[in-house]
Specification:
Largest sheet: 7 strands, mixed
CATH architecture: 3-Layer(aba) Sandwich
GO molecular function: 4 iron, 4 sulfur cluster binding; metal ion binding; oxidoreductase activity, acting on the CH-CH group of donors
Helix content: 25-40%
Protein name: 2-amino-4-deoxychorismate dehydrogenase
Number of helices: 5
CATH topology: Rossmann fold
EC number: 1.3.8.16
Structural class: alpha/beta
Number of domains: 1
CATH class: Alpha Beta
Radius of gyration: 18 Å
CATH superfamily: Flavodoxin domain
Function: Converts 2-amino-4-deoxychorismate (ADIC) to 3-O-enolpyruvoylanthranilic acid (OPA).
Strand content: 15-25%
Number of strands: 7
Cofactor: [4Fe-4S] cluster
Length: 223
């Protein structure tokens, strides 16, 4: 019997508010399908901003800043699916999530793309404006990491202002439920493929990452 499948949610909100409520809703949907669901609240993680070293495009190894980001990255690598959830602040992605995708992406994930072929889901929470823009940014980040995005109909954008408003957005929560259901379907399909074929290299690539071969790149292939 295979191990229990897991979805990890990254909560990019600075407070225990509407985004957290939406993820609790998502957790119930996943758990009803027998999937383990864990939410990581970035507000509880010690996370430094990028430092002044400026060597991100030259270093061939992981970032040396000592904080909680590597632990979260390890959880992501161990999960079968990952949900990126963030509220809209100032017409853009909340600063905690923005800092995390910069630190995790440039500092750890770009070297060998360890999130390749994991199933991704995107949720944005907004009063009214820029929900689509934040959803799109997080979607591009998932695609950059070679993750699998499963279409779920309307994007999982939830509208809310005051605490508790997210749970009143019936259409938004329906879209979140559909997202989690479809993610679970794909995770189960990939798990079945691995068990039946004995292969773990679903959608294998012969590139370490897309940076190889670029001019002025620290990972440029040697002749």
């Amino acid at each position: 019997m295979s191990a229990q499948l897991k979805i990890l949610a990254i909560n990019g909100s600075e407070r225990d508010g509407n985004t957290a409520d939406v993820l609790r809703h998502a957790a119930r949907v996943a758990e009803n399908r027998g999937v383990d669901f864990e939410a990581v609240d970035l507000r509880s993680i010690r996370m430094e901003r990028c430092g002044p070293c400026g060597d991100c495009n030259d270093r061939p190894v992981a970032c040396t800043l000592a904080d909680g980001v590597p632990e979260v990255v390890a959880k992501m690598v161990a999960a079968d699916g990952i949900i990126f959830a963030a509220p809209v602040h100032g017409f853009g992605t909340a600063s905690l999530m923005q800092t995390f995708i910069e630190r995790a992406g440039v500092g750890y994930l770009r070297f060998d793309r360890p999130l390749s072929n994991k199933v991704a889901g995107i949720i944005s929470v907004a009063r009214r404006y820029s929900a689509g823009e934040v959803w799109a940014q997080l979607t591009v980040n998932a695609l950059l990491n070679r993750m699998i995005l499963v279409g779920s109909g309307f994007p999982a954008t939830v509208h809310a202002l005051h605490r508790g408003d997210a749970l009143k957005d019936e259409e938004g929560l329906t879209n979140v439920s559909r997202l989690v259901e479809r993610m679970t379907d794909m995770i189960e399909l990939l798990d079945e493929h691995r068990r039946l074929t004995g292969r773990s290299d679903v959608l294998a690539s012969n590139e370490v990452n897309e940076r190889v071969g670029l001019a002025l790149n620290e990972l440029q292939a040697q002749p």
